[in-house]
Design brief:
Length: about 270
């Protein structure tokens, strides 16, 4: 009995001595948007602005966001363990198309992991060129649950590939952890317009992106269309779709959502 107890104490002492240096490692200062890993482990995580880490399901997902592994911060294992997992990273919008192995349907990717089914080969070719079929990745079935299926792309005009990609420059924006870049506005029925008020230089094309299936319609205030700014009214914006309007006049222009009239916003246009 005494020998067993001594052996147990010795084992605990050894474990403590092994853990002590690890616990003593200096914590690394992190900023939302950092890539992080631990020494001796190849797994890389995205450190979000919400203080959580996001997992890259595979290297294909990683390479839609990054060209290489430069700039990764190596942090102590205990620091990594203290950072909760926020979820999985999805493909960057406006890049490669995806499908799952058990379904022939091909999808373009929009913001916040919204998949838009491509209606035909002709539409795929119009968006991605003659070699469109070489720009498709299989997403494992287990990771397909990270995505949401939005409205189909029936014609190429239903999906502004370049515009949507420019509106999602990093994973923080894609996960809705920070505001979109200048000139972009998200729309959700639960939260309205985000940001609700923006300021842009004259000549800027402002882009609204629908992130749910509430089918918003953006229209000027007052409505019908303000006589000073003709054309400032969308058709219905389907889930994962965008609509852009170029502001050519200086001033502050109000707008609202037809489906939820209490939800509104303003675009202030300044001289360059």
């Amino acid at each position: 009995m005494r020998n067993k107890l001594a052996a147990s104490v010795a084992g605990l002492a050894l474990a403590a001595s092994m853990l002590a240096p690890m616990a003593g490692h200096a914590q690394v200062s992190l900023t939302g948007g950092d890539l992080i890993k631990t020494s001796g482990n190849t797994s890389v995580y995205y450190y979000g602005s919400d203080g959580k880490r996001y997992v890259f399901p595979n290297d294909k997902t990683y390479y839609t966001w990054y060209a290489n592994f430069n700039g990764i911060k190596t942090i102590p294992l205990d620091q990594l363990g203290a950072i909760p997992i926020g979820g999985n990273v999805t493909y960057r919008a406006g890049g490669r198309m995806v499908k799952i192995t058990t379904d022939p349907k091909v999808y373009a990717v929009s913001k916040n992991g919204i998949l838009k089914p491509i209606a035909s080969e002709a539409v795929a070719a119009a968006l991605y060129g003659a070699n469109w079929n070489t720009q498709i990745d299989d997403v494992p079935d287990a990771f397909f649950v990270n995505y949401k299926v939005g409205a189909p792309i029936n014609v190429a005009a239903d999906y502004n590939k370049v515009g949507i990609r420019n509106g999602v420059p990093n994973i923080n924006v894609d996960k809705l952890l920070v505001d979109p870049p200048m000139g972009y506005i998200d729309i959700k029925a639960t939260t309205g317009f985000n940001p609700a008020a923006i300021t842009v230089p004259v000549g800027t094309a402002v882009t609204w992106i629908a992130l749910d299936d509430s089918a918003p319609t953006v229209a000027s205030n007052p409505h019908p269309t303000h006589t000073d700014i003709p054309g400032f009214e969308t058709t219905t914006i389907m889930m994962g779709q965008s609509w852009s309007f170029t502001f050519t006049q200086v001033g502050t222009w109000g707008y609202h959502n037809h489906n939820f009239p209490s939800q509104g916003g303003t675009v202030t246009v300044t001289a360059q």
